Amino acid sequence: MSVVVLTGGVGGAKLVLGLTQILPADQITAIVNTGDDFRHLGLWVSPDLDTLLYTLSGKANAVQGWGREGETWTFLETLRTLGGEDWFALGDGDLALHVLRTMRMSRGDTLAQITADFAHHWGVGITMLPMSNDAVATSLETDAGRLAFQSYFVERRCAPVVERITFDGAKQARSAPGVCEAILSADTRTILIAPSNPYLSIDPLLAVPGIEAALRAATAPVVAVTPIVGGDAVKGPTAKLMRELGVAVSPASVAAHYGTLLDGFLVDERDPTAQLSLPTFACDTLMHSLADRVRVAESALRFADSLR
Length: 308
Ligand code: FO1
Ligand code: CA
Prior knowledge:
Elements: E1 2-7, H1 10-20, E2 28-32, E3 38-40, E4 43-45, H2 47-56, H3 74-81, H4 92-106, H5 111-121, E5 127-130, E6 137-142, E7 145-148, H6 149-155, E8 162-168, H7 179-184, E9 188-193, H8 198-207, H9 211-217, E10 222-225, E11 228-229, E12 232-233, H10 238-244, H11 251-258, E13 264-268, E14 280-283, H12 290-307
Helix pairs in contact: 1-2, 1-12, 4-5
The chain binds ligand FO1 and calcium ion.
């Protein structure tokens, strides 16, 4: 029996790393957001896929939350002296992924094939699937105009007030081979929604035709892990974004957002669950240490099994 995880970057990578400590890697499939992907300096960058690759192969810069540990920056420093755009920091080692990915995409290989090869070369045994091989670009309508995701997130540090979020190309995109099959498989024991940003990391996945329908049709229970802890977001702009979208920063808002898609919700023990009308399980969901990640992964699996 296997476990399927829908995930964005950092938070999801922690949960998946926890799962790899308790399940054989070949029983784990991660379906990864690619709405953050963009072309930069001519290179195709896939931040969430790369965060998973780095995390699962022990190369991640845990403090920074993206990129590699022990990275060097000769490329970026040289680029800067030449007047090149330096707001998006591509490290020397990180660059290798983007160069090789871009070269292979221009040759006709799919993002899924390239990702599988990268994972194989780095000894990452789980199945890592991009949500789609087609380009889907998250963009935001803000008080500073319409912004591409990285322009909002990195260049403007999430400062603009968000009015609406769109996933350009999603309607025409096809889910990557294996995505809906994994969700619908009779061998799938549990489907987890990682504690990633629901609006920026999970919604792009749900916008790809067929994925949400597959989740609703799946026999395996769908369980989300809360991205809200103690009435605040664990990381990033989730809380600010929720306020701007006019919803309370609470697990109840997240549960309402996912609605009937969820069969269960793993919430943090610090937050009230009285308003929640679906099955919940409360525990300490913060994932600082590896032991924390294992504990949250174990709690999610046990809770999901109780819903089967
Ligand atoms: N995030 C930043 O805040 N600043 C950066 O310069 C930056 C560079 C970067 C390079 C490669 C990569 O894969 C990710 C990078 N990120 C950077 C992270 C990033 O784009 C976002 O955190 C994710 O897209 C959100 O999940
Ligand atoms: Ca279902």
